[in-house]
Amino acid sequence: MSTSALAFSLLPSDIAQFSPRLGSLSLRRRDSSTSSVIEIKTPNFTTSTSRGVIPHLSRDHVRSIKSIRWTGVPFESFLDRVPPVPVLQTGSAPLHTFLGYDRGQHILAMSVRDPFDGRDMPANGKDHISALCIRGVRKVTPSSWKSYFYSCKPDVVVALSDVPYTQAPQSQKRLQKSIERSTVWLTHLLSKSDAPAAASSPEAPSGRPNVLVNLVGGTDERARAAFSENLVEILQGKEQEQISPLRTLDEGVTGYQFELLPLRATLRAEYGQVSQEQDSTSEAGQLSALMRASLHSLPSNKLRITYGSQTPHEILRFIRDVGVDLFDIDWAQRAASIGVTLDFRFPVPKTSVQYSVCVQPKTRGVGKADIGHNLFNFDYAHDHSRLASTFLDGEAFLATQNQNSDKLPCCHCGACTPQPFASTLLHDQVTEVREHPTSPIPPYTRSYVHHLLHTHEMSSHTLLVMHNIAVMDAFFSGIREVLQKSHSEPDLFATEVDRFLSTYAEPETLFAEAEKDWAKVESERGKGRLAREKQNQGGGEVEEG
Amino acid sequence: MQFEIVAKCHTTRARVSRMKLAHGVTMLPTFMPVATQAAIKGLTAQQVEALGINLILNNTYHLNLRPGMNILKEIGGAHRFQNWRHNLLTDSGGFQLVSLSKFTKITEEGALFSSPFDGEPTMLTPEESMSIQHTIGADIIMQLDDVVSSLTVGPRVEEAMWRTIRWLDRCIETHDKSGKKDVQNLFAIVQGGLDPELRDKCLDEMIARRDRVAGYAIGGLSGGEEKDVFWRIIKQCAAKLPEDRPRYSMGIGFAEDLLVCVALGVDMADCVFPTRTARFGVALTFQGPMNLRLGKHAADFRPIDESCPCPTCTDKMSRAILHHTITLETAAAHAITQHNLVFQARLMGGARDAIVNGTFPDYLKTFFKNYFGEAGYPEWCVNALKSVGVDLLEGNPGARVQAGAGAKWERVE
Ligand SMILES: [Zn+2]
Ligand SMILES: [Zn+2]
C-alpha cells in the first residue's frame, strides 16, 4: 500500500489570521519501494500544465529543474475519451507515471478545470460541472470525479466546485446554488460512498485523501463567509454519518484555494474594465478583501493557494494582505511563450550593485522599471548579454568567484548556466568517449533568443521558460528571506514590498507589447508558409522553415 | 581535417572512418541533423549533445538573412551563437536560393536574387558564399554550386555542371587566401544531373583538384528523381571519388536511403526529415515509421521502442501521452525529435559497428527485413545492394518486393 500524507506547518509566530507567514509543506511517501519526503518552504510557487505537460519543457528538462515541485494538473483535456486515458494507466502512481513526473520530486494536484481558462461555458448542473476538452464540453459528476481521482492517484485532489463561468455578474440565487452544490460535492468526495476499498486508495495514513477546496461565493462577501461557515459547521445525524469520523467538512480538507479568474471577470463586470495601474492595485485590494471574507471563519493554519495572480506585485500584496502560501506562476510561464525574459528581484537589489555590461529593463514613463525584456524588440538583436541584468550567468559568476563585494546572485537556469547532461549516448563501439570540456558553457544570449523568436524556433520558449521559472524561484526565496528577517525587524517585509512596488512597473504594457510582436511574427509566418506551400505544390523540394 | 579509414566492409563499399575537425572527432558514416536556424527544433544544444550527436548542419541562406553576418561577427560565429561545442557544417546557400526564391537568376558571376527583406537585387557569388561561411565559422563549408532540379534535362544541366566547376575554383581561391584553412574545410559538390557521362566529366575535374579540397559532396539529387537512377548516380560518384576524402550525400534522410548510400560508399548525409516528421507525430522505429496521431495509439502505454536509449523511451513516455499532446504541445514534438535523432544515430552507429565487425551485409538484411518485411522490400534497394554483393532476398524466397519507393507510412485517418 502506498501512502502520501501532505502536512503543512507554520512558524508558531506566524499564525495571525491575515499576515505574511512562513510555512513548510511536506509530502511524505511511504510505500514498498521508497520512503521519501518532498518539502516546499512557503511562500512558494506551483507550476501549471497544459494537457498534462509543462509547456515547452521536455521531461529531461523538467527533472533537471529542481524548483519544479508542486504541479497542477487540470484533468479536463483527458475527457475526450471514455474512459479518460490516465484512468487506464496501471501502477502505484498512475498519474505520475502517465505524465512522467517523478514521485521523489513532484507533488501532483489534480483539478477538473484549467484555472486559467476563463472562456464562457455552459452552466453547471445540479449534479455536474461543465468541462472543456478538444472535442467540446463534457459533464463531470461528483461520482465520476471521485472515480478518476481514485484511479489516477494524484497526491492532491481539488474537490469539484460550482464556479459559474457564465456571464457575470451572478445573481444572489445563483451564488446560493453555487454554495450548496459545492458543499454537497465536497461532502460526497469526503464520504465513503463511491470510494474503493482502502487497500488500493492513495489515502493518507489518516485514511483520507489530501483534498483542497475552492472557496466559493463569488464577489459577495457574505456568500463567501456563508460557504466557509458550511465547512466548519459541526454536522449532525445523517450528514455526519456520511463523513464520519469527521465532524466537519473542514476536518477533511488539507487546504483552501482561490481561483481568481472568475472573480476578476465578475469584478470587472461590476466595476467596469480596469487597465490603469491604480485600478489594478484596487483590484488586488478587492480580491484580498474577498479572500479574507472566506478565510475569516476558517482555521488559519491551513494551506492557502491562489490561482490566477497576474504579476509579482499582486503576489506580494496577497502575501502581505492575506497570507497566501502558494501561487501559480502561469503568467511567468506564459511570458516565456510571448518572448519575455524576466529580470527582477525581491528584495529590490541595492543600487550600488554593478550590472556589468548588461542592459537593464526599460524604464517606463512613471519612472518604474519593467520586470523583464520583450526579446522580440529589435533592440536585442545585437545584445549579446545574458538574459537578466539582475542575475549573473554561471560563467560570469565563476569568473568573479573571489570578489566579495556586492555581487549579483547567479541564475542557475539552463539558459544562463547551461550544464552538459550527466551522460552522453554512445551508438557504437568505435566512438571515443569525449570528456566534457571543463570550462563552463557561456550563457545563451538575448540576441540568440531574439533570433529564435523571429525565426519561430521553439527553443526560444524552452530557454525562456527555464529562465522565468528560475527568476520566480529566486523571487520566492527572496520573499522568505525577508520574512525570516522580519522577525527581528518587524516592518521589513512591508517596507520591501513598498520598495518593490515603487521600483517595478506592473507588466501590463510590457506583456501587451510582446504579445503584439508575437502575433505579428505568427501572422507573417502564416503568410510565408502559405506562399511556400503554393510554390511547393507538385512535389517540389521540402524545406525546413 | 584528419581523415583516416578505420575499417572497410569486405562485401560492400561501406567504410568506417575517423574525421577529426576543429571541434572534435566524428566517426563516419554518420547522419547530420539539420539546425536550419541555428537550433534543432525545440532542443537546446546540451540536449542534442547528450543524444550522442557531434556533427550538425546550419543553413547558410537562412543564417545570412537572420541573424545576419554582423551579428554572427560580433558574437564570434555560429558555434558560440547557438552554444554548440561540437562539429558544424554549413551548406553554401545556393540550394535554398533556388528552392526558396522565385526570382533567382544564375549568371556567371553568381546567383542574382531579390532580397526577401527589401526586394533589392542581391548577388550571391562564390566569393560571397565563402565569406559568409567564414563568418559562420563551421568546421566544414560547401562550395557554391549551380543547382538545377534533378528533373531538368537538356543543355542547362551541362552548363550548370561546368559552372559549378568554375565556381569551385573561385571558392578554392577565396578559401585559400582566407587564413581559415586550418580550421574550416572546403568540400566540392559533384554535379551533372542524372547523366552518367556528365557526372563522369565532373568527377574528373573535381578529382583533379583533390589537393585543394577536404572532401566531396554528391549534389543534384533532390528527391524528385527515380530511385533507380538515384542509386546508380550515388554509386558511380562514390566509386570514383578518392578514397582518402569523406563523401557526403546531400539531403538524404530516410533509413533505407541512408543504408543503401552507406553500402555504396557514402560517409555523411543530412536531412530535415527526422525532425520535421517528429513535429507531425511520426516516430521512427526499426519496424517502420509510427504515426502517433493515429487513434490506435491513444491508450497504448508502451514507449515508442522498448530498446531505444533515447530520453523519451528510457523515461517510458507512452505512445498514449504522445498521442494526447502531439501537435498541441511543443513538448511532444521535443520528445519525438529526441527519439528520432537517436533513431538515426543508432541506425548509423549500428552500421559502423557492423562494418568494423565484418557483419554489415547481415546488418542490412536484418534492417530491411524488420523495416519492410511485411510491406515488401523496395525493388530499388534490392537492386542497389545486389550491385555491391548483398542479396536481401537470399534465404528468404517468400519475400515480397514492391516497385514503389517508400516506407510503409501510417496515414492519419
Ligand atoms: Zn536564467
Ligand atoms: Zn526512443
SSE topology sketch:
The complex is a heterodimer of chains A (545) and B (413).
Chain A: E1 3-10, E2 23-30, E3 35-42, E4 44-48, H1 59-64, E5 70-74, H2 85-88, H3 94-99, E6 107-111, E7 129-133, E8 136-140, H4 142-152, E9 156-158, H5 172-190, E10 210-214, H6 221-232, H7 237-243, E11 255-259, H8 260-271, H9 277-295, E12 303-307, H10 312-321, E13 326-328, H11 330-337, E14 340-342, E15 372-374, H12 394-399, H13 446-454, H14 459-486, H15 492-503, H16 508-536
Parallel strand pairs in A: 4-5, 4-13, 5-6, 6-9, 9-10, 10-11, 11-12, 12-13
Antiparallel strand pairs in A: 1-2, 2-3, 7-8, 14-15
Helix pairs in contact in A: 5-6, 6-9, 9-10, 10-15, 11-14, 13-14
Chain B: E1 2-8, E2 15-21, E3 24-28, E4 30-33, H1 45-50, E5 55-58, H2 60-65, H3 69-75, H4 78-82, E6 87-90, H5 94-100, E7 105-106, E8 111-114, E9 121-124, H6 126-136, E10 140-142, H7 155-177, E11 185-190, H8 196-207, E12 215-218, H9 227-240, E13 247-249, H10 255-263, E14 268-271, H11 273-279, E15 282-283, E16 290-291, H12 311-314, H13 319-325, H14 330-357, H15 360-372, E17 377-378, H16 379-386, E18 401-402
Parallel strand pairs in B: 4-14, 5-6, 6-10, 10-11, 11-12, 12-13, 13-14, 17-18
Antiparallel strand pairs in B: 1-2, 2-3, 7-8, 8-9, 15-16
Helix pairs in contact in B: 6-7, 7-8, 8-9, 9-16, 10-14, 11-14, 14-15
The structure holds zinc ion (ZN) (2 copies).
Overview of this protein structure:
- Chain A: InterPro entries: Queuine_tRNA-ribosyltrfase, TGT-like_sf, tRNA_ribo_trans-like.
- Chain A: Residues 523-545 are annotated as: Disordered.
- Chain A: Pfam families: TGT.
- Chain A: This is tRNA-guanine(15) transglycosylase-like protein.
- The complex is a heterodimer of chains A (545) and B (413).
- Chain A is of the alpha/beta class.
- Chain A has 16 helices and 15 strands.
- Chain A has helices at 59-64, 85-88, 94-99, 142-152, 172-190, 221-232, 237-243, 260-271, 277-295, 312-321, 330-337, 394-399, 446-454, 459-486, 492-503, 508-536; strands at 3-10, 23-30, 35-42, 44-48, 70-74, 107-111, 129-133, 136-140, 156-158, 210-214, 255-259, 303-307, 326-328, 340-342, 372-374.
- An eight-stranded parallel beta barrel of chain A has the order 4-5-6-9-10-11-12-13, surrounded by four helices. In chain A, strands 1-2-3 form a three-stranded antiparallel β-sheet, with no helix packed on it. In chain A, strands 7-8 form a two-stranded antiparallel ribbon.
- In chain A, α10 (312-321) links the parallel β12 and β13 (326-328).
- The longest helix of chain A is centred in the C-terminal third of the chain and has 29 residues, at 508-536.
- The radius of gyration of chain A is 24 Å and the shape is globular.
- In chain A, 50% of the residues are buried.
- With 413 residues, chain B is an alpha/beta fold.
- Chain B folds into two domains: 2-271, TIM Barrel; 278-358, no CATH class.
- Chain B contains 16 helices and 18 strands.
- Chain B has helices spanning 45-50, 60-65, 69-75, 78-82, 94-100, 126-136, 155-177, 196-207, 227-240, 255-263, 273-279, 311-314, 319-325, 330-357, 360-372, 379-386, and strands spanning 2-8, 15-21, 24-28, 30-33, 55-58, 87-90, 105-106, 111-114, 121-124, 140-142, 185-190, 215-218, 247-249, 268-271, 282-283, 290-291, 377-378, 401-402.
- In chain B, the strands form five sheets. Chain B has an eight-stranded parallel β-sheet with strand order 4-14-13-12-11-10-6-5.
- The model of chain B has no long low-confidence stretch (mean pLDDT 94).
- The chains are: A alpha/beta (545), B alpha/beta (413).
- At the A-B interface, α1, α3, α13 and α14 of A face β3, α1, α3, α4 and α5 of B.
- The complex binds zinc ion (2 copies).
- Residues 387-388, 411, 413, 415-416, 467, 470 of chain A line the site of one zinc ion (ZN).
